[in-house]
Amino acid sequence: MSNINISGYGDDLTINGIRIGDLGPAEHEAIELEKGGQNYAPLENVVVSSVLDSSTLICRKPDPEGIKAYIEEELLDGLCCYSAVNQGQLNKTIVDAVIAHLQTEKIPTVPRSIRHKYMAAFLMAATAITKMDKIVPKVAGVEAPELMAKLSRRWGYQVKGIPADQAIIVVAAENFHGRSLFAVSASTDPTAKEGFGPFLPGIEVVPFNNVDALENLFKEKGDRIAAYIVEPIQGEAGVILPAADYHPRVAQLCREYNVLYCLDEVQTGFGRTGANFAHQLYGVKPDLMACGKAAGGGIMPVSFVAGRKDVINVLTPGSEGSTFGGFPLAAVTAVYAIKALVDEHLAEKARIMGERLQGHFESVRAEFPDKIKEGRGAGLLTAFEMFDKPGLDGHKVSLKLLENGIYAKETHKTTVRFAPALTITTAGIDHIGESMRKVIQAL
Ligand SMILES: Cc1ncc(COP(=O)(O)O)c(C=O)c1O
Questions:
Q1: How confident is the model at residue 268 (pLDDT cuts 50, 70, 90)?
Q2: Is the pLDDT of residue 1 over 70?
């Protein structure tokens, strides 16, 4: 006899007699605390239930009257899953394709050891949008920078001629490349590292946006350095934009020292910053690029490394792989995620709406110059930073924004990031701006 009984759909989904539609926010939290690992600290007292439109979530909150298990309210999604939903929640182009492929086309699930017809489509679309020679599909975002590190090391030994096991990968301080052992070895965030050592050797850290530090390291150890892996704009660090000439100078230095220039565009890619890929804002082209998040249109986890063929050609059968990397449903989702990006002119929309949002930041800053230090961003990857003073607390701002019907979250104590869907309307942007004003005024 099995000890599990599952029935129903949606709110009627019932697990061993407990119906999901009957659970209030406190009960969700209790189940997560009891049965889940505590690797996140989600916003208190709110549970997302469904989607109203491309930028609006339906959420459950405690009933102020205390009668019902919860009430439902609309919430403008100001983060869109940390840029995984650039194309908007349930983007029609992608959803229609997925449904057609599951129900009409009857898409199979097969491993990479047998060819499927959608892989060719994925590779053609992904090489075209990235303007890169070759693609290697993976699943989670973190797997893409991880694979860039592996590719760089192998290229370093086989092509550059670095002595065995001596390769160095350079990363930038305050980076975020995910949570794998390579990513946390490369991290400078003590919370991400504590208790997880020993870390991978062969990683050197330089300050972000500091060409001299990179050049000094290249001068000292250049013949052992395989790659510099860096985000074009540091997202998790609080939307930190480098000087306009940083990337062109880094790209030039990498060429001079025969070091691979590898960009982690997992968060900045797919239109987010006002260009299809953030490196295009700086007029450079990386040797390798990591993509994830919106590569799956918010529907499926899809990631990949795109890059120069002579670098990607160091891979040989068996040296790398992933059961679900580029499996048929992921390949189809990725193709239509690209189609939505292109057909809906999402990069251009990000640029226009980003300017509008930054206009709001600037008027709130001008009104409260003692509270707001600056607003910044590229396209719709934006943040505002408050002064580090008592009472100016990013988490408190997130909770107050929630009361105003906006979901956004602090990154670090004084910075609040907004990265809504690129399909957001001007009314949505103005709602964010007006709510921000109200919240900052009340602080
Ligand atoms: C630049 C960058 N790289 C990698 C990752 C990791 O992606 P995932 O959480 O999907 O593994 C993230 C996630 O925020 C990111 O911003």
A1: very high
A2: no
* Ligand 1 centroid from CA 118, angstroms: 25
Based on the number of CB atoms within 10 Å of its own CB, is 373 exposed (0-12), middle (13-18) or buried (19 or more)? Answer: middle
Ligand 1, atom 3: closest residue by C-alpha: 177
Residues marked active site are found at 176, 264, 293
Report all structural domains of the chain as residue ranges with CATH numbers, in order of start: 92-343 (3.40.640.10), 347-442 (3.90.1150.10)
| pLDDT, tens digit, 9 for 90 and up, residues 341-359 | 999 999 999 999 999 999 9
Write the residue with the smallest CA distance to atom 7 of ligand 1: 141
Give the model's confidence band at 411: pLDDT under 50 very low, under 70 low, under 90 confident, else very high.
confident
Q: Are 175 and 208 in contact (CB under 8 A)?
A: yes
Q: Which residue has the tokens 């490349």?
A: 177
**pLDDT score of 43:** 87
Q: Whose CA is nearest to atom 8 of ligand 1?
A: 141
Nearest-atom number in ligand 1 for the CA of 183 is: 4
Bridging pattern class, strands 406-407 and 71-77: parallel
Cα torsion 53, 56, 61, 65 to 10°: value is: -80
Can you give the pLDDT at residue 222?
Answer: 98
Q: Are 347 and 271 in contact (CB under 8 A)?
A: yes
Average pLDDT over residues 321-338: 97
Give the mean model confidence (pLDDT) for residues 12-18. Answer: 97
CA of 267 to the centre of ligand 1 (A): 6
Tell me if the pTM is above 0.85.
yes
Name the nearest CA neighbour of 97 among 107, 86, 108, 89: 107
Separation of 23 CA from ligand 1 center, angstroms? 31
